[in-house]
Specification:
Length: 111
């Protein structure tokens, strides 16, 4: 489902750029650093089979993606969160792979 959404909402990024002005590059760097942390948390939660930790990381990541206009990544995090809530380790693992793919694409588009 997330593959149907665009990676980025250009209007959201434009609004952030206007709001943040000279601090916009710092905002992007902060988002990317946080995203890398969330990816690590998701991976570690999968390895330890801690679906609650996975859900929490996906939920937090979803929020920051929403704030940045990262539509496809936000949707992938929602799918991951649901998989964890349902106790579906296989779906959680699949969603983690999708999150990574979306993040790689997004990262390339932000810079």
């Amino acid at each position: 489902m997330s593959d149907q959404l665009p990676d980025i909402d250009p209007a959201a990024l434009d609004a952030l750029r206007d709001l943040m002005e000279d601090d916009y590059p710092l905002l992007l760097e902060t988002f990317l650093a946080d995203a890398k942390l969330r990816l690590t948390q998701l991976r570690e939660a999968l390895v330890s089979e801690d679906l609650e930790a996975f859900r929490q990381a996906a939920h937090s990541f979803k929020g920051s993606c929403g704030n940045m206009g990262a539509l496809a990544l936000e949707q992938a995090c929602l799918v991951a969160e649901r998989a964890a809530l349902e106790g579906d380790t296989s779906a959680a693992s699949d969603s983690y792979s999708r999150i990574r793919e979306h993040f790689i694409r997004l990262q390339a588009q932000l810079f």
